[in-house]
Design goal:
Helix content: 55-70%
Number of strands: 0
Distance between the termini: 49 Å
Oligomer: single chain
Largest sheet: none
Number of domains: 1
Order of helices and strands: HHHHHHH
Strand content: under 5%
Length: about 110
Amino acid sequence: MSKIFVFIFSIFILTSLSSSAAVYKGQRVFVKHCVVCHKNGQQFIASKTKLEWENIMNKKGEILAQIHINSKTEEAKSSKDYFKTKKYYKKSKHLKQFLMEYSKDSGKVPACN
């Protein structure tokens, strides 16, 4: 009986850890896909509060995707394809965590490296 409990508990712990968002993964997404247009990333991230970023990133970042897809600016043209992919929606939880971690009201500054 105790072996079954340990086994089930281990599976629960492992699945809960892998499904949570990671700030470092969100930073990787930001550097790879967002810095191209938002060159001064620190000022861009710190332009909104945690609540504002949370509202933008709700529903797997659908609002952020729509902002970029509907944008008429030249810079946004290169990112439109990315915001339509499953890859974006899969990684949006990490991006959300990163944006909220370094928002205007967090008092933190992301490292550049």
